[in-house]
Amino acid sequence: MKKKQSKKKNLNKKKNNSSSNVAFANIEKKIDEVTVPRKPKSGIPKYVADRMARRIFFAAGIPTILGMSVFVVSYIIVTRNIAEIPPSSTIAISALFFLLGLAGLSFGILSASWDKEPGSFFGIENIPMNIQRAKNAFKPASQNFEENI
User: 97, 124, 114, 99: which is closest to 49 by C-alpha?
Assistant: First the structure.
């Protein structure tokens, strides 16, 4: 006697053949692309963003790393019995470094020059101008429109 093939195997073979035909039937059809005119971007230019990132790395990154390293140094000093450091002073010193890092984050963003040229080393002269830009960015659109009339 011959074994009968199950119906499931036959159905699966038929489904595989038909589904692959349908899947690859439309591959070569090309869709006409509609060209949409691009609007000018109103965001931060790339060279300014790169300048901000460098300033943030130094002004916020270094104090943040120091804030984390306070815990490690304090642990080493206490475990080797070099000195007795209260936990509250460890937390206070690390919090000071983290706050310094937060201030450095703001400084890095606000001190970056928007000109093509990099500007000065610290960029303190750019801070008032960038604060004004930030204030104007948060004004409602109708208020900006009325000022331009």
Answer: 114
